[in-house]
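Summary of Year 1 activities. Much of the first year was spent building the evaluation harness for sequence design. The harness presents a backbone, in tokenized form, and records the residue chosen at every position. We chose the following record to illustrate the format because it has been used consistently in internal testing since the harness was completed.
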């Protein structure tokens, strides 16, 4: 059997042991009840995938009604959600993985349909860069301060529900990233202006979450921070900006830092002259805080290469959707048994909830191998192959 380093345990910065270096990154299922409570379909999905990875980070949960992003999202916005969150935490932990709840606030990329009066909010009244995106209302100072407290209260709920920790969604164009981006944030108050002022929101959220963890007095409660390193717009975040913010983040007691990339080995896409992989740049600034990296990791060879280069955790997203037993197959010297293509006939077997299918076949299709395109009629959900 190959002695892969990624199958060995490691320690997070707060001393918690993770049983191996495979991380399941957040994967939104869009399958919760309208109240934000988790459904049995979601529990089954997580149960099937928690037997192998060292840590399972859940899909993003909204911290308040104003922070909701899409229909079918998990809620962490009130104490009424604790029972539902407890089921999710227990389902993951029963299979041996650490359970981490991702917390998010959608901001200007939210679906208007889930917002009060269909009005989305953001740092400034500036729409996202993709065609057809809606213009948000600029948040008031009071709303901004309340949202920071909401992240803290959602953290307390995660703890009370039995999660091992939380991850702050500072990546993928969600509100925490929007505040850092000059493309989204043109404020002139305490929350915008210079680069360091644009960092204020993300750092204030992190400080509040750390304050709550101190109140709980459980240092083993994990706090992770997820970041994207670049934006594709002319005005927007460049990797050097993101690295400066990462430096500020790791001055705080976080347990790990999670880099969200399209390809884990990529170099900066907004600076084609720079040929150094982004994960190497992050390793230099993180000062020993464990780094997780996500992006198109599929084979044991790729995962091992990343880990051999000193990356603490390899986050495998779509490949764990396609093969929930990826880790067990490697552990059992059964690499030939790993499946790399998603067959429409296996949706039920893989516990993939119906609302995830159109999402996978559109926005997340690039990089996902599907055995046949012909079986999908996205307009008639109940006709997905079984
Ligand atoms: C269906 C789907 C839903 C996702 N939902 C989230 C999410 O809730 N939060 C998040 O930070 N990233 C989310 N992501 C991004 C993944 O965590 C991961 O970074 C991305 O898929 C790249 O890894 P991969 O190439 O291994 O899939 C999602 C990805 C997919 C495919």
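For this record, the design step produced the sequence shown next.
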């Amino acid at each position: 059997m190959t002695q892969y380093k990624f199958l060995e345990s490691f320690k997070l910065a707060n001393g918690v042991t993770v049983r191996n270096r495979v991380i399941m990154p957040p994967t939104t299922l869009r399958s919760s009840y309208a109240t934000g409570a988790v459904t049995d379909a979601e529990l089954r999905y997580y149960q099937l995938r928690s037997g192998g990875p060292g840590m399972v980070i859940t899909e993003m949960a909204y911290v308040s009604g104003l922070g909701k992003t899409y229909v079918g999202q998990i809620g962490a916005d009130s104490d009424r959600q604790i029972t539902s969150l407890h089921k999710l935490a227990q389902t993951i932990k029963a299979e041996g993985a650490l359970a981490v709840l991702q917390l998010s606030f959608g901001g200007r990329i939210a679906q208007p349909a889930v917002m009060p009066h269909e009005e989305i909010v953001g740092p400034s009244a500036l729409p996202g860069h993709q065609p057809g995106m809606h213009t948000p209302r600029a948040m008031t100072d009071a709303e901004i301060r309340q949202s920071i407290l909401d992240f803290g209260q959602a953290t307390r709920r995660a703890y009370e529900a039995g999660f091992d920790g939380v991850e702050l969604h500072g990546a993928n164009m969600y509100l925490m990233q929007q505040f850092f981006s000059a493309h989204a944030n043109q404020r002139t108050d305490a929350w915008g202006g210079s680069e360091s002022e644009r960092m204020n929101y993300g750092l204030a959220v992190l400080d509040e979450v750390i304050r709550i963890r101190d109140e709980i007095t459980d240092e083993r409660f994990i706090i992770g921070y997820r970041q994207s390193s670049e934006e594709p717009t002319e005005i927007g975040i460049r990797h050097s900006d993101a690295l400066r913010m990462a430096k500020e983040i790791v001055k705080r007691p976080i347990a790990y830092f999670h880099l969200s990339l399209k390809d884990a080995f990529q170099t900066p896409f907004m600076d084609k002259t720079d040929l150094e992989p982004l994960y190497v740049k992050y390793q230099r600034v993180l000062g020993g805080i464990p780094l997780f990296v996500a992006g198109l990791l599929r084979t044991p060879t790729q995962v091992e290469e990343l880990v051999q280069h000193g990356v603490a955790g390899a986050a495998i997203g779509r490949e764990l959707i396609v093969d929930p037993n990826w880790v067990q197959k490697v552990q059992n010297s059964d690499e030939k048994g790993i499946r790399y293509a998603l067959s429409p006939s296996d949706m039920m077997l893989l516990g993939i909830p119906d609302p995830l299918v159109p999402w996978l076949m559109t926005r997340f299709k690039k990089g996902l191998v599907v055995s046949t395109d012909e079986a999908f009629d996205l307009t008639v959900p109940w006709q997905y192959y079984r």
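The two ends are 35 Å apart (CA to CA). Quantitative recovery figures across the full test set are reported in Table 2.
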